[in-house]
């Protein structure tokens, strides 16, 4: 399971011209689910993402996690994160989880975020989405379990 996390001043996701998820300061989480991923990996990744200290403290150092900084999260499914890009000029997607399993684990990850007390907005699984982001920093990290 893969999370590309971006520290955001704001982020939103739109489907068919309608905004379906929107946050102020916090994290935009692009989530990729791979074959073999399970609830245990989703929980571990959720713990890492929410515990990752990438927000500035009073001294300007990255010492706060998203909860400590008072932020929220926008979680967007992103199957292309599981792409094989090692050779050729076209990505391969055989490493990604089957759609039904990927959706189940995506929803499970979002539930894990909410269980930890965060406001968690979402995109729409498998939809054609337009994601807007004001990246703060810019600060972007790739986390994988």
Descriptive account of the structure:
The protein has 145 residues and is an alpha/beta fold. It has one domain: D-tyrosyl-trna(Tyr) Deacylase, Chain: A. The protein is 21% helix and 39% strand. The protein has helices at 39-51, 99-115; strands at 2-15, 18-23, 26-32, 55-56, 62-64, 72-77, 120-122, 129-144. Strands 1, 2, 3, 6, 7 and 8 form a 6-stranded mixed beta sheet that branches. It has a two-stranded antiparallel sheet with strand order 4-5. Strand 4 and strand 5 form a beta hairpin. The radius of gyration is 15 Å and the shape is globular. It is found in: Cytoplasm. A motif (Gly-cisPro motif, important for rejection of L-amino acids) lies at residues 137-138. Pfam families: Tyr_Deacylase. InterPro entries: Daa-tRNA_deacyls_DTD, DTD-like_sf.
Short account of what is shown:
This protein is α/β, with parallel strands linked by helices and 145 residues long. It has helices at residues 39-51, 99-115; strands at residues 2-15, 18-23, 26-32, 55-56, 62-64, 72-77, 120-122, 129-144. A hairpin with a 2-residue loop joins β1 and β2 (18-23).
